[in-house]
Amino acid sequence: MRALNKQIVFGLTIIIVDIFAAIFAPLIATHSVDDMDFFYIFAKPGEGGHILGTDDYGRDIFSRLIYGSRISLLVGVIAVGIGAFLGTVLGVVSGYFGGFIDTLIMRFTDALLSFPYVLLAIAMMAVLGAGLFNAMLAIGIVMVPSFARVMRSAVMNIKNEEFVLAAKSMGASNTWVIFQHIIPNIIPVLIVYSSLNFAGAVISEATLSFLGLGIQPPTPSWGSMLSEAKNYLQSAPHMAIFPGLAILITCLGFNILGDGLRDMLDPRLKN
Amino acid sequence: MARYVARRLVQVIPTLFFVILTVFLIMKMIPGDPAEVLLGPQARAEDIARFRQQLGLDKPVLIQFIMYLKRVLTGDLGRSLIYRQDVLSLILERLPTTVTLSLCALFIAIVIGIPSGIIAAMKRNSLLDLLVTVLALVGISIPIFWFGMVLIILFSLQLGWLPAVGLGDPSKGLWDIVSHFILPSLALGILSTGTIARFTRSSMLEVLNQDYIRTAYAKGLKKSLILYRHALRNALIPVITVIGLQLGNLLAGAVLTETVFALPGLGKLMVDGIFRRDYMLVQGEVLFTAVIYIFVNLVVDIAYAFINPKIRQSYRSV
After folding, report:
1. pTM of the model
2. Would the CB atoms of B286 and A240 count as touching at under 8 Å?
């Protein structure tokens, strides 16, 4: 139990630092995100008062990273929110009522799950057009089927428990049973799965922005920073290193937290 | 066994149908008139009208879908507007690069993943075990395109050991081709290495706790014999499923890897298609990849049944 808590604490620490950076970005950032320091273009880390150096326009990388955390967290929250909400609705309906609706929903999730995750998001962005809002929407929708699957099996695990059957035998309506008995009991699974998917959302945003389909320059996002950096790997490798590290560390945080929460809240999910 | 294969084959049909429907619907989400979008802003009104008719866009949506379904089932994925070529033939031209890349990545993931998973299971709670756990976490947390960039910076720009971008030149010999695939395969391979290692570890741990392993020890068999003949063989069965699932992810991950390493594969084709608004091409590619993904999963399932006698037998009695 102590080891598990360590995981949760470790993951949470990283996430809290991220949230802190996002909220207090104006106080933490040493420069404005758009200010060009003409005398220090491609400055190496430490040069000219730029902690992590500057990019091809002489913009401060550290400050852009700090502001970039806002985008990553925003996309994560909204996308996971969309995926978790729609997925839970579908999963609960599917798992609780069964029958034809269940078959229909499951066939549809099967079809969506037959697309590799990244590919579906890319295809949707190709159609919807680039931009922050569309990126959040696409990433969220792509998450729906797997959320639906997981929530469905969680519902099926408890819908035949005695307390649920007892409530039904006392004449409780389906709505009552779902909201009073089913939903509160699947929340742990929802929390664990959301945390693990948060990491996926952050990577997806970075991926879409890297391909030029997500957040557009000059808005600082970790993915779009990497997209610009790929042209200067030779002359300014630091432009590529730091945004990637930010993504890696943030995703590690959410994955470690998710793992820890899973072990604590729902050991059955462990494979 | 035949019954099982037949059953799995039948199950694929509705999935394929829904996949085609999904691709069709995604393309329906294009804002505005698809004919206008496809032809671009310079197109004349009469050209757009003619194009609409050619595509069947003037018909009801249901009819459009049936027409699309018919075309797809006969292998007609449409024509690329930018390449002025049949989409399917374009895809087949680029496929070898992507498949080679994915298979090399999978090979790396297996060669690193399985042994480290086994070692981690045997030396449970050791430093090595921790290392495998960390590697697995990093594997799912790292953006592969970034890892690719780091590899380029390190091994080709700083150390100068390997080429950074492009395909090799066949006239310069085999090594030139191989060397161009090493970094991309490594970059893509990390995606699966951790997952495979982690899965091997937990599967191995489960098997090592079984009664028959204890019996084997009690009989006084050599430890190496127990591990390789008794434990490993059974532990690797579920790992095969995971490996199969990875192949699908790798095909998709190749989109990113090809972008970083400028490899002319399916991924590059798709990204170009998106930016030049060649929706036919994108639509065809998405569908093609999804269909491959479905069939890879099918083959994996059947292979799994073939290797695992439990599944075979459960179907014999049905």
Report:
1. 0.83
2. no
